[in-house]
Structure formats: structure tokens, C-alpha cells
Amino acid sequence: MKFRVPRPELPGFQLTPMLDVVFLLLCFFVTTSVYSQWENEVEIQLPSADSSVVPNRLPGEIIVNVAKDGAIRVNGRTLTPEELGEKCRALAAAFPGNPIVVRGDRAASWESVLRVLDICAKNDLYNVNFASAIPDEAADEPPPARVREP
Length: 150
What we know:
Elements: H1 15-38, E1 62-66, E2 72-74, E3 77-79, H2 81-94, E4 100-104, H3 110-122, E5 128-133, E6 145-147
Parallel strand pairs: 1-4, 4-5
Antiparallel strand pairs: 1-2, 2-3, 5-6
Helix pairs in contact: 2-3
């Protein structure tokens, strides 16, 4: 009596797990690009400095934009000084020593920028950097933002 030996099934290509991974990567990159645009959302012309360098971005870095009219914006949302103080208090309690980057418009008053520094100091946030632009005399547009390293 002859028994049939079942032939081994050839391995197939599993498309569903690959599509899941590709979809998750797509979601990750789209989300990341949205967050990276928030700091440049506000049309701010940074003052230029010859000592500006390309920043080493730190995880958890908070970017505070000060517009020329003195408005304070964080993550695309305009905050009052009191709201910024509350955010700074919560940030200092959760993550002491967290870096803050202040991007002040070149036409903003010194008082507006100093108000942000005062709020940070009152709430024990002392790791503050200032964003500046590298001067480019040939370009008509303002140069890209750079953060001056301490």
C-alpha cells in the first residue's frame, strides 16, 4: 500500500505584518514632522550673531517664541505670562533642568524677552538658550534659526 507523503507547503510572504510596520512608521514620521514645524510656525526674524552654531537638539526641549508685538507662543499657542508661569512650574516640577530655547524677534522689545526670562527664573528653570541667526549678507530672506550653545 502506497501512502502519499504530504509535500511541505512553501513559505509565503506575509504582507499584513509588513503593511502594519510601514503604517506605524508613516504615523511616526508624520507626527514628528508636525512637532518640528511648531517652532517655526511663528514668523520671527531672529537677530543675527557671528557666533551662532547649528544646535544640538535635546530631548524635551521647550521652545518659547516672543513675537515683535510681545506675544508669547509655545507649541503654536499664544500664552499669557501667567499661563507661561504655570507651564514652567509644572515643567520644573516634572523635569528639573529641562532646556528652554527663547526665540525672540529682532523687533521685539527687550522687556518682552526679559519677561520670559523672569518667568523661567521664578520657576527654577535656568537652562535657557537664545536662538539667533547666522548673518548672511547675500540673502534677501532672513537666515535660518540657530541656537547659540553655552
